[in-house]
Amino acid sequence: MAATVANQVGTREKLLRARGAASKLAQLSTAEKNALLLSIADAIEHRADSILAANCEDVGSSGLEGAMRDRLLLTRPRIQEMAQGVRDVAALPDPIGETLAEWTRPNGLKIRKVRVPLGVVGIIYESRPNVTVDTAVLALKTGNAIVLRGGKEAARSNQELVKIIAGVTGIPEGAIELLDSSTRDSVQELIKARGLVDVIIPRGGAGLIAFVTENSSVPVIETGAGNCHIFVDESADFDMADRIVINAKTQRPSVCNAAEKLLVHENIAGEYVPRIVQKLIDAGVEVRGDDRACRLANNAEIEPASEPDWGEEYLRLCMAVRVVANVNEAIAHINRYSTKHSDSIVTRNESNARQFLRAVDSAAVYWNASTRFTDGAEFGFGAEMGISTQKLHCRGPFALAELTSSKYEIIGSGQIR
Amino acid sequence: MAATVANQVGTREKLLRARGAASKLAQLSTAEKNALLLSIADAIEHRADSILAANCEDVGSSGLEGAMRDRLLLTRPRIQEMAQGVRDVAALPDPIGETLAEWTRPNGLKIRKVRVPLGVVGIIYESRPNVTVDTAVLALKTGNAIVLRGGKEAARSNQELVKIIAGVTGIPEGAIELLDSSTRDSVQELIKARGLVDVIIPRGGAGLIAFVTENSSVPVIETGAGNCHIFVDESADFDMADRIVINAKTQRPSVCNAAEKLLVHENIAGEYVPRIVQKLIDAGVEVRGDDRACRLANNAEIEPASEPDWGEEYLRLCMAVRVVANVNEAIAHINRYSTKHSDSIVTRNESNARQFLRAVDSAAVYWNASTRFTDGAEFGFGAEMGISTQKLHCRGPFALAELTSSKYEIIGSGQIR
Question: Fewer CB near the terminus (10 Å): N or C of chain B?
């Protein structure tokens, strides 16, 4: 079987092939890359049946149900969407080759800073097979080779998708490599391959991300964990606050930009806490609170929050409420407990809003909007590789430009020091 | 003694103080930061005697001689230079607060990407005490707290310098912290302090850098190692090639942008190899060569190079010479063996030069110039934190702008998804 044969090639050999492909990919023109992307989109459509068959095996043997099964499941419309996503990426501007800066030194040296591919990008992810296609095409668009280590539940789907993409005429050998998902050894080899791999992007749960960031010797872009806050200030429009809190908490509770914590200014807490707690409960949310919030909401079903609650990313319909003295206390609480992802203030007070925007040390800080907008598509990037919660290289939603590095090309006429 | 007391404060406590200082530093205005920098410059000048006394103890007890002693040694002119360096940084533009991008989404959300400090920057370095001042002021200028772990030979000099800087009125407590240099424990704690420290920059020898990059769970900017190449193409102006090779090899052989390897096009090797080998030997350089270079230079004292030579950074007056078939073979050799730092082609052939500039995967690629120009000051940056040889975050010489991150400030009017 093809799958078995693929797995017999060791991780290191795949990384070496990717390294070799990287220098070829870096030299492709924009037109060449876009033509390959369009061929990939066509191939995905033409091979929908084989993708569905592989996925059906994965879903059948996974034993997953509900939301987890749904994440793994591919359907004809989803494959169609995948192919369209590839065409969308083909239509985006190519960042490679862009002149980022250019100047001439007094000694006559002409210095040009130019955008180049990173080289080899490693992705470690969990069950969703669409990540396989999304990340492969973003890598190809930016002239990078990609090494994928997906989840074992999606092994057959991923193998089929990678076979289709790698089989497109003109794709250099090694441009897309899929590692063995049946063992953690391949993760270990990937994250220790400093020199062969230029960056690792883990996409998945907190456990996966912590493991990779703690153990990788390859530079990592940390993505994802979001313990996001909404602070309802004294002067907030309560109706707006309701809409934002309910949306940020309930519209899609399993994602990183969903809100987990609600801070309420003490001067309005007497009125606003019981009101919002009831609305949250009506929306099916389990509510926890600090002492004051619990007292104020004593008629509603609210549980006392414990210290670990303030740092936890629930990723489900649960929210903890805390009463704070003012915007300063809200900022201090957020900077202490948040994962530096997305936090929002609801207020009519511009001065408080400006202070909050400036002082909250998070990737995305909002004034009068839901935290749910921290997303490549919502930001208008046309694609998304992830949401960085670290400060190095990129922060917040990132896409094509962040899959690049730069180099200096310097032209002289014999200059020496 | 103050030094002993300082060391009694544990590493973790110092990191927590730095974390606390970071949020204060991030809020300082440009004028406030520049005023602090000018006060630091004055304090360094006024306290020259105590700096010299501390340094004298360090030099006396180090047992170092020659170049190593010179790296550790401070003199009155060097302290004056240090103070001037601080004033130069005060005069540079402040990158913090700069709007990097700004746009409005169709739903009315106003998104602004703004430059912010990284937070807490950790520096691990070796003997030169001027690094203490240089890095501390670059960090202050960019609103970052800094945690320094210097070499033990310079312990007293570093303690005195940090005491002077931290003692300037207005510097937040924790803005500059010096870790215990008498044990490696402080390095271990620093590189594992993910969440408290935002980036580690190792500055020093290859062993130090490898240790930090292999073991740090905090994101690292890898600096320094330079196995730099010069390729003398068929059409090179021999006089220019001589000047560039001799300069790049001998002007300061101990630094990372010095050339270590010379590649010569086979069509000119018969004439050029004996010529340049003789010049290198005359300049005191130990020369090694591949079989062809050795045969061509048979009258000169040249030793056969072995495989490890091609990957080695000599950092001394030694150079290995190899004959290559053409520009493609030169590029392939460089991309295989170089540390992706700085590489140069000497040629009159523009097409070969363009190909070399594009295809050599290094931070700085030169046409007809010495590799010795890869340097913050030579690039006109007015300051330098290091030279990055990784591709994430920054590549090549980096200074103020690279000590920053970004955040998104998003202003809405109640938008929800």
Answer: N
